[in-house]
DNA sequence: CTGTTAGCGCCTTCAT
DNA sequence: ATGAAGGCGCTAACAG
């Protein structure tokens, strides 16, 4: 005895008018008598009429839903981006269909098909660490379904993207280590095919270069973004004939793990070895020692990406420009690189309260400048 | 020139057979010639046919999507639950439509309508801190759309729920504080109308009672789940004629904030004041001091809730039983309550690696036992 | 085993 | 300003 939902026909019958008029009244069509509209609206409200998005989607080819595909849901990064994106979508009446890939390429492909099958009006995508083929996303492009990559973007596709200033941020992080007197700076990186890793690695290299330190290949180690590898890798770094005095990790999870390992090995952080992360994940701020890292405006990233995506939908696919929006990361210096000062002012480390200052975006009209990095 | 997608009609035309046969072949209908099926499947594959979920949904009244409505996306808790739920859904071919409410009742109501409009086959819900009216969720119940609450459940509705052992876990947390010699134990709680807060408060009271400590109303303070209130509230607690020597916070975010405030006020944790949280959020493990807390199997909770929900859909609404699944929380003793021991074994504090042991579920056939608590 | 038909709920010409 | 009719892509009777 499931109380089925109210339809336009129901309203039409009760009011003894045609369903097309009801439809018009409900869709702000100007060609309808104000009185009629009032009656329809009143009844619709009273009956708690909910338009059936399925049939609307089927009819209009617009579902008012946006797909969001993320590589994982373990770190706080993607959920926060999603929250920002969702908020921006809701403001314009869009719903959000989400899917996580568990860093698995096959799952990503499957998820892309789900998005297609559900006729999303657009997709926000951040790829898995395994992804090197983009055919499944090209399909969207070909069909005129707008797609915006964020954070872990795809280098090959000329579509809009939202990223953090990976290169500059890395550069700043490493420059900070150099400024604090470090000479042997290791880099725990991720899969080499990922653009994001390349940019961060390049930033690392450039900073070393700029400050007269030689780039040593043996100090750059691929963690495959897997924390379980870190223990062994940190040990390896310490066993070098010229042991490292600093570690720049490609994200906070890796950095935190490195700190744990170092502490376990009775190394002092930052006195013996400084550690810098990337991302300012939840928890990094009140770790022991608090982690120096790059704060990324993740919620902002979600909003920006969604706004960009929604703005595309108003225009012709032909006019879509592969804009890359770059959000500035900000170096947050904490105790994992600098010994605590005597006086530290009180700052809430809870993300809901944390204030990010001076986050301005820049914009490039195409990918070339980015690739030049 | 958007390359529109392939439909059943397209396949039927190319194969010169009827669309119903194509449909049958695609839906594993037994009444179809194996050869025909092969041809259809082959062509569908070649053409990268994607069934249109909108029309299927419209026709069958089943969309294969589950709505998940969460109160917030700031802490790591809900994203992790969602990840678990999504995984369980994907295994059975279900997609997930998500919506966050930013702890706002009106948004929750709006989100419930979105779910209705999108014809989800069921919903997983955790309510906001403001929610005291459940009419919008009753609608689902009335329409025969299965609904399962998790974590922040609704006491009034007789529907399936998945929760942690709030009462017992609180009891254990407070008992642990007592065992470590604390006499004046404060409780930072949340909005009193929330069932989850009531249960945790009851657990706190019971533990005090059991160990001969008197319940002092002035030591129970409502934070409204807002970390910005904590500073003032902790100060208040310290200014009591008989100052507190321990704080049991209703979640980790509040607890972490309390620790920060205490440190700022030059109180030693745990020597002067012990702090216990609830939830074992990401980051609590490597905080300074590492936070003693209740580890909740959040990913497991998502999986359990989704499995429960999907299992309902196979049965008649009339036979749905308001089962409440209780997942055990586990007290994780860390440095915020006990001074660090000389030897600490190495444990990865990264959630992807963290091993949760002995998490067994219990099950009640109705809500009464729970309410009795 | 296959084809025909009808219709899910809605929007959108085309009439009036 | 309103009504009638057609169809989005698909499935589920009903015939054969």
From TrEMBL, chains A, B:
Keywords: DNA-binding, Transcription, Transcription regulation
UniProt GO molecular function: DNA binding
Highest taxon of the lineage: Bacteria
Gene3D superfamilies assigned to the protein according to its UniProt record, in alphabetical order: 3.40.50.2300, lambda repressor-like DNA-binding domains
Domain HTH lacI-type: 6-60
Name assigned to this protein: LacI family DNA-binding transcriptional regulator
Any Pfam family: LacI
């Amino acid at each position: 005895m499931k109380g089925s939902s109210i339809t336009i026909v129901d309203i039409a019958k009760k009011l003894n008018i045609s369903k097309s008029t009801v439809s018009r009244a409900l869709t702000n069509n100007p060609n309808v008598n104000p009185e009629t509209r009032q009656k329809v609206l009143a009844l619709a409200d009273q009956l708690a009429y909910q338009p059936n998005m399925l049939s609307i989607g089927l009819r209009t080819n617009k579902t008012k839903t946006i797909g969001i595909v993320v590589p994982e849901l373990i770190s706080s990064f993607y959920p926060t981006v999603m929250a920002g994106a969702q908020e921006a979508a809701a403001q314009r009446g869009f719903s959000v269909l989400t899917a996580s890939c568990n860093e698995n390429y096959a799952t990503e492909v499957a998820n892309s098909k789900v998005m297609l099958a559900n006729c999303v009006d657009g997709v926000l995508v951040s790829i898995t660490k395994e992804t090197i083929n983009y055919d499944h996303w090209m399909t969207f492009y070909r069909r005129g379904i707008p797609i915006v990559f964020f954070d872990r973007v795809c280098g090959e596709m000329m579509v809009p993207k939202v990223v953090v200033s990976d290169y500059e941020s890395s550069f700043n992080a490493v420059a900070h280590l150099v400024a604090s007197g470090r000479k042997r700076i290791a880099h725990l990186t991720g899969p080499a095919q990922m653009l994001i890793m390349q940019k961060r690695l390049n930033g690392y290299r450039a900073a070393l270069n700029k400050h007269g330190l030689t780039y040593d290949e043996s100090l750059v180690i691929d963690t495959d973004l897997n924390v379980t590898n870190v223990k062994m890798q940190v040990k390896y770094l310490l066993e070098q004939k010229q042991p490292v005095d600093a570690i720049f990790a490609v994200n906070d999870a890796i950095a935190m793990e490195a700190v744990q390992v170092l502490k376990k090995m009775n190394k002092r952080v930052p006195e013996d070895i400084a550690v810098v992360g990337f991302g300012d994940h939840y928890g990094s701020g009140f770790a022991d020692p608090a982690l120096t890292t790059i704060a990324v405006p993740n919620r902002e990233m979600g909003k920006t990406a969604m706004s960009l995506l929604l703005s595309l939908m108003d225009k012709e696919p032909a006019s879509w420009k592969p804009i890359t929006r770059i959000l500035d990361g900000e170096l947050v210096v904490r105790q994992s690189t600098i010994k605590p000062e005597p006086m530290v002012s009180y700052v809430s480390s809870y993300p809901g309260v944390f204030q990010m200052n001076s986050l301005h975006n820049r914009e490039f009209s195409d990918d070339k400048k980015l690739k030049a990095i």
